[in-house]
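User: Quick sanity check before I run a bigger batch. Here is a single chain. Can you write out its predicted 3D structure?
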Amino acid sequence: MADIKDQINEDVKTAMRGKDKERLAALRLIQAAFKQKEVDERIELNDEQTITILDKMAKQHRDSIEQFKQAGRDDLVNKEQFELDIIEAYLPEQLSEDEINQMIEQAISDTGAETMKDMGKVMGVLKGKLQGRADMGKVSGLIKSRLTT
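Assistant: Done. Predicted structure follows.
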């Protein structure tokens, strides 16, 4: 299977051939984020790193959408949503709330976490498993609700 970067490169070519300017712009935004990371750290990204970048971009887009909605800027909401949809297409399938809850319960039981002091242990176990597959902000809230203060 082709890695995410290769797939995006192919999709850029397809968008160029199809003269799909909006899609092309969104894909180039993703490529730029990858290139930035590679240049800054002098590395070649693997799929796990690309998912981390895509997940961060998706979170930024969700935050922007909320802010634009509050400001009544539907034009910008639509643009951000379009880009978010493209970004999410390259992320692994999102987990259901039940699946997330099961993983949280398992992580709490595996780490023996009981209080908020143990939050870091639980997040450490879950981060790799859930990255790109769940909103980590929501996951954090769910963990907090289960651990006593």
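The CA atoms of residues 67 and 105 lie 33 Å apart.

User: Great, the batch can go ahead then.
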